[in-house]
From TrEMBL, chains A, B:
Record lineage: Bacteria, Bacillati, Actinomycetota, Actinomycetes, Streptosporangiales
PANTHER family, sorted: FI06132P-RELATED, TRANSKETOLASE
Stored Pfam families: Transket_pyr, Transketolase_C, Transketolase_N
One of the record's GO molecular function terms: transketolase activity
Stretches assigned to coiled coil: none
Chain segments carrying region Disordered: 1-23
Record carries keyword Protease: no
Record note on quaternary structure: Homodimer.
Protein name: Transketolase
Cofactor: Ca(2+); Mn(2+); Mg(2+); thiamine diphosphate
Organism whose genome encodes this protein: Streptomonospora wellingtoniae
């Protein structure tokens, strides 16, 4: 999501439902309020419970009891500690409130209503077709930074936002993350505890809603608040234990969090799931369903209220501007030379850092291998080390783009699998992140299968609105490294460990969705489609076959998603036969991307797919490609085979 | 890997290289040894360093310095504490040694040589084509339980093996896991610390090789052993800090670990990376490469030695037998009724638990949703709760199958993405695990995209030797739940949240690789291929079209990998046109599996793919399928469209 790209009011609002009260009116209403602050906060907590119960009841589904445990925590936060301009979600001084326990969305939406951001009518369209008030929050609402609902992601993402505040934006906004107790079992939470603790992110506060009950029963530690305190403190955090329903204790805890200057703070709050309604309070079996008798619950909670929260405005910053960029002076390589595409990426992202001040690079302690190290040499202030914690690395990338930074997160292609759920959720967050996976395929050689990215194309293609790029030479890798910054969404660049010949001139252009024809003649009888290392195998095969008068077209499909359908269709029309060759498993890779082009069309070429089918061991890169049947010899045999087919009778059923 | 399935000597050994010395000879050699134990252990540590240096030197790659830091730790373990019969790797009493820092493979192989399991010739074929001594260890070697090399996996897997020892096998074997310090940044390590700490797995010992240096520089905590101690103790572990090069301290630490009866032990060892060779000792930039002057290093280490370790044999247990099973009495459902496939899975796996005593079920705190809860009701002793820690859940499944148990690990299909790297590595481990993902696709309805498995088919298909099953009714789900236990490798069952009509009789058979034809006539002009929820949409469309005299064949492709190629080819021959419809992203799912059948063949049908293309929000299941264009109306329109095509002129390039 680009800064400033969000409307001031939520999108997708159903026709007829109003935008809620304007801000002035809210302030006015609050001045009329005569209750003491303590009374008012308690009443507000009850209102949030009432509205959470009503929303889930209207929807016929949802998590009211998970909302009720944290209602007082959120009421005090929004009333007295949060700084946020609901009329200007992209205000650079806004605090960030991340609902890591995303299933408690009724609480968040009830809070938005109390803040005047949405109307009661909008609240009651919760979970309905077309409503942006989804079962779990997404940035379809302008006040939601990131999608949550896959537990254990809010805190690592919040750490990324807090990192931006402390090290890049240099603004005093705070990041507040509401976590459930069940999700503290996720390792990603401890990656975040370790990262934020060591980075000393004092602008980050985790509010731990310890309500004792998970989805199917008691949590591991129940109400043993000390169990959580010991763990969190061991990771260098400041902790405060509170009764999560005592507004004075909660208020004091938030003050202590704001006063703490050296460390992030965890507020460990003892709460009651379903608090306020005797039928469900601290009861098992009440998770994730509306209350059986909502009307009775609302009356037990004291009935409906219409208190409004006058959220404090940020006292610094302004409307965020996208940092401007100058022309990128990319590295260039001479045709005929040799270079690894991972090196070209490293040099290119370093050059991008010169031209674009919004470029940041994230590492999983392999920057020397991915070549992200070239960026750290030139821009140490915009390079962030997450050590071997890929989930925190990707989460931080998502957090940084929330603040308008353009992140490149790089590790081995194989190890992106460690953070796959974070990439999946980044797409739901409409996040704009750039991923780089080095050491693709069997071509890495001796290190063996644990280090080989062989499923990465399939996994990254199956991410909504993603782009998958796999250049075969240094100049194309450099161009695409810069180009992916222009794509909104999840972009993935797959790079090679070994050197490959430079086949493109420095001035050649490379577009997302494009391809290049490297061999072509009027007499081509077969088209070989390749990407990355296999492009060079295809070229060798084509040149050998040309010597025998067999014309073979070679297409470098460096953009695997979107793939260059028009060019592939034209090649199919002209040559009639296609061989695909990739350094990847046969499922979901380049070959399937090419076959997909010919789904939903009238004419389909004869095709043959070459990919890695057996589990590799250790061997040289050349031996690996030969063993896998994706080298020049295998391409040559495939071309001969597909040409031979038409002279044979069709086998039954084939 | 089934118990007893391993040869007594390593596989894939290159011709001419011997099996190493027989056991009796080793014992004999040791009796001749006149050094004191202390001298001998120090010499042994130097020998392991020498052989690690030689192996990496011969290979021209590898990680000798990472091996050298842990050489003394391993020398003392193997000599005086490990209980293992190298002649009988599947002996039920064997300890388990897991090299979590898999890049230190030269150390492991040097240890195998010292134990007489491999010869020096075999050691020097390290990383060569055909050698089972791969860059990172895999079970191609019979003494290796699981593949390592993706860091942070050894400890969670070891916790699974230790769980088997403590709760299922009830045998006194111990699990020893050697971890690097860099990998302690992985959240999965802390999932394991939490799990093993709370489970009180006293039979598990983590040896933390704190050598201060990672791949690209100093680790986060360097030699601050207390930083590790505080964290590990907070998670309930017993800890011992030692000088990792003092054999007496190391020996005492192992004794304390064996004496500790209540908690797992972490031995936190201060070590020097590259210890013993001044050119690389504690030097940055020496990671992951052979030593520049191996000969000089070997002489500095005191030259070659040929000490042998007389590893103590297990004092209990015997050759492991696969527990026998009786006939499975699966639940059955009446045709015409309705049931959710997730419920059928739950009932079926519970029935499987009655028939097969090796069946175990693992949960990520969603057993009420996945319906694994039916198993816990009947077999609480073989049900294991991992709370919301999917990586630990899958790792434990891998650990349990090491011991011959047959695990079913179940969570939401979407959340398997959290453990994708563990599934990837399970395939490299040749592990035999069963995964179950519930809440597939947009059909879950209101909860929204964070909870929808929409990439799971693509991700699981792209796992080596995997099986992907997606039944549409309760009887087929029950049969396939039992059937997947028979497949060696990673098997995946995708289940539905909502009820679907029962369309198959209780006696119908379902095979991995099979399919069912649900509608068929001599006049069929189009074949619709569906799976799961979309089968019922396809049937509704076919029945509507049949009313208009348009014959539509409907195939239930419940086995998506392997897909039923013969039946699809026959349908293509007979109907000429195929429409695929799936509740999944368009990339890497059912549609691509079907298109792949027609790659590499001579005749290809006209095809049209229906899948989820837009990012869903909240809505009812029916609204979701309609919005996504995968409901009966969309199938009907697709059939009409593909039939209309042939009456239109082919568009240019299409």
């Amino acid at each position: 999501m680009r800064p400033g790209s969000r409307p001031r009011r939520m999108r997708g609002t159903s026709a007829g439902s109003g935008p809620g009260l304007p801000f002035a009116a809210l302030c006015h209403m609050r001045r009329k309020n005569t209750m003491t602050d303590r009374q008012r906060l308690k009443e507000l907590g009850q209102q949030l419970r009432v509205d959470a119960v009503r929303a889930a009841d209207a929807a016929g589904s949802g998590h009211p009891t998970s909302s009720m445990s944290a209602a007082d925590l959120m009421a005090v936060l929004a009333s007295d500690h949060l700084r946020y301009d609901f009329d200007e979600p992209s205000h650079s001084g806004n605090d960030h409130l991340i609902l890591s326990k995303g299933h408690a969305s009724p609480l968040l939406y009830a809070l938005y209503k109390a803040c005047g951001a949405i109307s009661d009518e909008e609240l009651l369209r919760y979970r309905k077709l077309g409503s942006p008030l989804e079962g779990h929050p997404t940035p379809r609402l302008p006040w939601v930074d990131v999608a949550t609902g896959s537990l254990g992601q809010g805190l690592p993402i919040g750490a990324g936002v807090a990192l931006a505040g402390a090290s890049l934006d240099r603004l005093p906004y705070r990041v507040w993350v509401l976590c459930g107790d069940s999700e503290l079992a996720e390792g990603s939470v401890w990656e975040a505890m370790e990262y934020a603790g060591q980075a000393g992110l004092a602008n980050l506060t985790a509010v731990l809603d310890i309500n004792r009950l998970g989805q199917r029963g008691p949590t591991r530690h129940g109400w043993d608040l000390d169990a959580y305190r010991r763990r969190v403190e061991a990771f260098g955090w400041h902790t405060v234990e509170v009764d999560g329903h005592d507004v004075d204790e909660i208020d004091a805890a938030y003050r202590r969090a704001r006063e703490e200057a050296e460390r992030p703070t965890a507020i460990i709050a003892r709460t009651v799931k379903g608090a306020g309604v005797s039928a469900v309070a601290d009861q098992e079996g009440a998770h994730g369903k509306p209350l059986a008798d909502a009307e009775r619950a609302v009356s037990e909670l004291g009935g409906r209220r219409d208190l409004r929260i006058d959220v404090a405005l940020p006292d610094s910053g302004g409307v965020r501007q996208r940092p401007g960029g100058s022309r990128v002076d990319l590295p260039t390589y001479a045709v005929g030379g040799e270079e690894a595409t991972r090196d070209a990426f490293g040099r290119a992202v370093a050059a991008l850092g010169d031209a674009r001040p919004d470029t940041v690079v994230l590492d999983g302690e392999v920057a020397d291998s991915t070549r992200a190290k070239f960026f750290v040499d030139q821009h140490p202030d915009r390079f962030f080390e997450f050590y071997i914690a890929e989930q925190q690395m990707i989460a931080a990338a998502v957090g940084l783009q929330v603040r308008g930074w353009t992140p490149y997160a790089a590790t081995f292609a194989a190890f992106l699998a460690r953070a796959y759920d974070f990439v999946r959720m980044a797409a739901v967050s409409r996040a704009d992140i750039n991923l780089v996976g080095s050491h693709a395929g069997v071509s890495i050689g001796e290190d063996g299968p644990s280090q080989m990215g062989l499923e990465d194309i399939a996994a990254l293609r199956a991410v909504h609105n993603s782009v998958v790029l796999h250049p075969c030479d240094a100049n194309s890798a450099a161009r695409l490294t810069a180009g992916m910054a222009e794509h909104d969404g999840v972009s993935y660049l797959r790079t090679l460990r070994g050197k490959t010949p430079v086949v493109y001139g420095p001035d050649e252009g490379f577009e997302i969705g494009g391809s290049k024809v490297l061999r072509s003649s009027a007499s081509d009888r077969v088209t070989v489609v390749a990407a990355g290392a296999t492009v060079h195998e295809a070229l060798a095969a084509a040149d050998a076959l040309a010597g025998e008068g067999i014309g073979v077209r070679v297409i470098d499909a460096y953009s695997i998603k979107p793939v260059d359908a028009p060019r592939l269709r034209a090649a199919a029309e002209e040559t009639g036969r296609i061989v695909t060759v990739e350094d990847h498993w046969p499922e979901g890779g380049l070959g399937d991307a090419v076959l997909d082009v010919f789904a939903d069309t009238r004419s389909t070429p004869r095709t043959m797919k070459l990919a890695v089918t057996g589990m590799p061991g250790s061997a040289t890169p050349e031996e690996q490609r030969r063993e896998a049947g994706i080298d020049a010899g295998a391409v040559e045999a495939a071309v001969r085979g597909i040409l031979r087919q038409e002279h044979e009778p069709a086998a039954a059923g084939s």
